[in-house]
Protein: MFS transporter
Organism: Paenibacillus filicis
Amino acid sequence: MLGSNGSKESKESKESKESKASKAISKPFLRLYALALLFFSANSILNVILPLRIEAFGGSNSQIGFIMGAYMFTCMFFRPWAGHLIYKHGPGAVLRILLVVNGSALLLYTFTGWEGYLTARVLQGVCTAFFSMALQMGIIDELPEEERSQGLSLYSLFTYMPTILGPLLAVGIWDWGGMGGFTVVMLVIALATALFGYRVPRQDVSERRGTAAPGYSGMRGMLGQLVRNRPLLVCSVLMLLVSVVFGAVSSFIPLYARQIVHGHAGVYLMLQAAVIVTARFALSKRIPSDGKWHARFVGAVCLLGGAGAWLLSLSQVWGPVSFYSAAVLIGLSQALLYPTLTTYLTFVIPGSSRNVAIGLFVATADLGVSLGGITMGPIADWFSYSTMYAGGAVMAAAAAALALLNRSMQARTPRAESG
């Protein structure tokens, strides 16, 4: 009898844990993930089409990198304020305004020349800063500690899912559809995102409001927080360095692939995206979510990105095997690094300043991607794409060394401060 009761209690306990663990994939969160998928679907096409169109108009690698980098640079600039304003006004109202602005930016691409693309990239950057912060802070606030890494990984998973088929669609549009096909696709994406976004109930996004986000004290205060907080500083520098590699890939692979025997930009980007999506789905529960600093794990993930960049630099000599192997390694690095560092920071940063601090961290990731286009483009003009990607490999190796040199970082903030 006791054995039967014990078995029953064990079964109920197991079911209770499974029910609790399912919150990250509950219906409200699935709505938010689906909205993220729609919102970011245009980028998978624009990241291929824009470099090709700018080059066709006579633009240099420096100009391509500047326009492509403007998107994430704007994200970086607005991201810290996004956490503050979303806390103050509530994410529901902010999201609805952003969907209109984002739709306008997508339509701007369809009837302007490459000079007008800069305005559209800036508008998209502002929208993305607020949109992603609203959804990520909602996930962090609403999920229990042990599920944060899973929720953030699933959010990232859905933002990358369009990049599996998007690059191939973009190449098809470029080769056969022309601007007519491009216009139709942008219009469909803009309307679908707006209609779905307006149907997402407000209660699906945390509506906590206040007069100001705790911990928000202007740019000087935010930068001071970055310098004083060692975990935040280390994670931000790591993300900045490795994100340069990610930015150089997204900005210049559509052009570099044409220099590789049997190289195809759509296949490369599809393969990299498939690795990101698969890894985030399969490994979402294995990403550390215990508040501890896993220096070796983080260092290894950085080295994956560095090895991928090094293989890219050798692809003109070694051919398609090196080229597509780089997609796998960089995809793994991109899949694991961001959710690992973000989850760690949610534990070690006090709840009173977490929104702004996470905004600062994500801003450094944006800056890295932006610099991957803005600063690496001139290197490609002066030297070559191979030299550019070799430089990215060195930066990723430096990030790995930084992770290992900080093994003794604070494990976690006391629960009383964690909010």
Q: What stands out?
A: The chain has one domain: 28-417.
